[in-house]
Amino acid sequence: MGDVAISLKVTPQGTEVDLDDLKKRICGKFPVEDSDREEIGFGLTALKILIVRDEKEGGTDDIENEVEEIEGVASVVVENVSLI
To answer: Residue 30 carries which DSSP code?
Structure first.
């Protein structure tokens, strides 16, 4: 057993969403190891989040569901999951 790296793409509901605040709220729920921003278009920017957690904690459904419930989040996509 080991740790799992989970890469998420978090799209905000609009350009008016404060990405720094959104990142803080995600970091308050999960152990975020790294983050970046990705321009989507029309002024919209997504957060790229890397979360590392123990493989024993299960899949990604709980992370996706909790992040989607955060105010200002339009969608969450798991881009990659890998054992480290």
So the answer is: S
